[in-house]
Amino acid sequence: MKTLTVKVGNVxxxxxxxxxxxxxxxxxxxxxxxxxxxxxxxxxxxxxxxRITVPGMKEVEDIREIHRKLRENGIDTPLxxxxxxxxxxAIAVASVVEKVRIxxxxxxxxxxxxxxxxxxFIEVCKANNTAVRVGLNHGSLGDYITNLYGNxxxxxxxxxxxxxxxCVENDFYxxxxxxxxxxxxxxxxxxRLLAKEMQAKGVVFPLHVGVTEAGNGDSGRIKSCVGISTLxxxxxxxxxxxSLTEDPVNExxxxxxLCDRYDGxxxxxxxxxxxxxxxxxxxxxxxxxxxxxEDFACDFGKRLLDxxxxxxxxxxxxxxxxxxxxxxxxxxxxxxxxxxxQQASRRRFYKPEYIACPGCGRTMYNxxxxxxxxxxxxxxxxxxxxxxxxxxxxxxxxMADADWGYVGEGNHKVSxxxxxxxxxxxxxDSEAVDKLVELIEAxxxxx
Length: 447
Ligand code: SF4
Fold this sequence. Notes:
This protein is α/β, with parallel strands linked by helices. It is built from 14 helices and 19 strands. The chain has helices at about 30-45, 55-70, 85-95, 110-130, 145-150, 155-170, 185-200, 215-230, 250-260, 290-305, 330-345, 365-380, 395-400, 430-445, and strands spanning about 5-10, 10-15, 20-25, 50-55, 80-85, 100, 130-135, 175-180, 210, 240, 270-275, 280-285, 310-320, 325, 355, 385-390, 405-410, 415-420, 420-430.
């Protein structure tokens, strides 16, 4: 899809340019040294844009210092300030970094004031050549838009179009747009609708694509590849973030794979596929397990998501880390990866659906460890969506359609949510996983 070109520092985003891999720090922004070190590792791994959370005015000064130190050390990777709930902070930081991400759903509670603040913000961006990401998330659309369209992919696309129109009215085109969801069907549908709406208007901004709160491990990678590859294979998407609840450096190889594959630089290791009706047998000769997972998710995720096929049997081989050839035919691992692909494509759910944010400077507890505990204590359940979120500021809004939520409050305290409602607050984090599991079990007994 032909788009405008957006300049973020020394990086160009848009059709005609390579797809750009990016990531986000999970350090505390006030910890300047730690954040600078993480940025260095991200750059070495191949990140071309790095986002850092800026919760308030104090962190505007922190990111200024981080920016200064990185440049002083020869690291020229553009920085993006991530803003929620404070339009004043967005305006203040717009002259400090190369790009600002705002979430229209929480730019300001009052929609009219939000529009006025946005116009002011754009003026600062224009004066400083700062790019903007209008970044909507499925779980955090404003009341104004959900009252009109419900909490739907259409609402996401319509909300984005309203802010796109405001950019155009203000003659501001250095804009990238994203519409993320942890649900691959919602996310794909929202981007497809937005692409059509922008084409109809004749102003097509580049798209930042990603599956938000994808979780970790194989599931997080497969879910991300299914959603992102579906769009990239249709020419939708110009920059990619793979969002994992892990060290963010781990996101980069997956993001790079997606960028390279859809820039036509690498090919799938799929050797053969045989169709029997809507059931496919796929035979791979993959150079590693990671490549097998990525290729498998990209080759068949879209076809499952779009219901062109119903089932995939995985066969063939991959090379393990210690150089051994692992045969997949009839193995438990092949069945497990096929189950993971079915779940990521939302065709068959064999375990709970987990939503977990990647964590950022707002996270005040050990998110990665807690997420692992929650997964191992609830793995036996089915037909339930469980969210583990790093902060109380964004977590509840972002966990979208979760049945249960574990949300960090800070100060070693946790809120437990049932749907959108907190049913226990200020639970000590040493007891919170037990409480969550007890509540889920009790609820299921009641039927
Ligand atoms: S929900 Fe997670 S990633 Fe989002 S702002 Fe809170 S801690 Fe950061």
